[in-house]
Amino acid sequence: MGQNKENFANSQSSSPETTGQVSWQSPANIALVKYWGKYPGQLPMNSSLSFSLKESLVRVYINYKPSVGSQAGLQQFVFNGLPNDDFRLRIARYLTDLEVHFPFLRQLALFIATESTFPHSAGIASSAAAFSALALCLCELEAKLAGHPLAVNTKGYTGKYPADFGEAFVQKASFIARLGSGSACRSVEGGFVCWGEDEKIVGSSDEYAVGLADSAVNPKFLTLRDAVLIVDDKIKKVSSSQGHALMATHPFRETRIEQAGANMDALLKALQAGDEAAFFRVIENEALSLHSLMMSSDPGYILMKPNTIALLEKIVEYRTWSDVNIGFTMDAGPNIHLIYFTRDYAKVKALIEQELAPLCSGKRWIDDSMGNGPEKI
Ligand code: PMV
Predict the structure, then answer these.
(1) Cα–Cα dist 1/349, whole Å
(2) pLDDT at 86
(3) Mean of per-residue pLDDT scores for the chain
(4) 84-93, 201-210, 279-288: lowest mean pLDDT where?
(5) Closest atom of ligand 1 relative to the 38 alpha carbon
(6) Count of CA atoms in the C-beta half-sphere (13 A) of 361
(7) How far apart are alpha carbons 213 and 192 in whole angstroms?
(8) Do 8 and 113 contact (CB within 8 A), yes or no?
(9) Binning pLDDT at 50, 70 and 90, where does residue 118 land?
(10) Which of 26, 30, 33, 36 maximizes ligand 1 atoms within 8 Å of its Cβ, making it the mutation to test the pocket?
(11) Is 266 buried (19+), middle (13-18) or exposed (0-12) by CB count in 10 A?
């Protein structure tokens, strides 16, 4: 699917001579408590919690050179080896908006290439991974241009993961990623990540995401896997921006904010206690509530397809008779994220291949698991 870095770098060789390159890869994340509804400035109506994936990645390569006259800003944008006008316009606007945080952008010409390891519109938000990787590139570029030693952590070695670059760097990258796509701020770290001020999470903020401390999570939850069952791979009929906007006047808005808070409390307790039944109860409640909110908005939208329902029934039924603990979550689309533990991999893979994949579009599903977060490439 994704080209390797060498091929990819070659695909950019048509861009004019540049003076430097920064590149990062970031994972997609799957929300367990959903961010749904926002205030101006891309601030969340409720706090959310996700985990970062391992295999579903976006890589961003920025080549840059000093601009001459009017040639500042985004000069070229390539997605998976091809120009993409929709993305180019979105990224160009984002970069212009970021000039207040990164004045150096006014003096640079940028040539950006991105590639993803998973298909676009497969039920995994590529925008979260892309804006996270882009934000990390820009933060590195800022440090580079200012002549700051960046890649040295407290132990004195050159870093590869965001944590190696220090807390301030990671926070800024998360803040910058948030401005591109809210959920992108959670893709700047690995493991479980929380976005939104919550009194139970030390250091949490509406402005950027923070990772959950190891001590807050029973180790078995670090072995979670996510099988993405692709029911439909067409572009979503309602964008998440439209969905967030519908929440501004939604009749259940206040109740949703309360519900998300209660689900966050319950999920944090379940993670700490190692309570699998409570964990699945909360994440399924969040997924079904998100879809109910879309159905009861004005106008209302049905995002599930007949096979979404068929698959959900099969998953719940399997859990009742087998000795395997599985559950589901969904984003604002028809595809299903089947969540389970690595210890059950063989059994769940057999279930998917025999019972679930036949209900997927072209029998397609993505085999993923919890990952460690972005990497400098
Ligand atoms: O970051 P956005 O604006 O694409 O919104 C993401 C919304 C959900 O994926 C439905 C939930 C979430 O928290 O990721």
Answers:
(1) 22
(2) 86
(3) 91
(4) 84-93
(5) 3
(6) 17
(7) 9
(8) yes
(9) confident
(10) 36
(11) middle
pTM over 0.90: yes
Substitution candidate for ligand 1 out of 34, 206, 208, 267 with most atoms within 8 A of CB: 34
What is the C-alpha to C-alpha distance for residues 140 and 142, in angstroms, rounded to an integer?
5
Q: CB within 8 A of 208, min separation 6: which ones? A: 171, 172, 174, 175, 178, 185, 188, 195
Residue 284, helix vs strand vs coil: helix
Residues 283, 342: Cα–Cα separation, whole Å: 18
Separation CA 300–CA 107 (nearest Å): 45
Q: Please write down the long-range contacts of 69-76, taking CB distance under 8 Å and 24 or more positions apart.
A: 71/109, 72/105, 72/106, 72/107, 72/108, 72/109, 73/105, 73/108, 73/109, 73/110, 74/110, 74/112, 75/15, 75/16, 75/109, 75/110, 75/111, 76/15, 76/111, 76/112, 76/113
Interval between CA 248 and ligand 1 midpoint (Å):
15
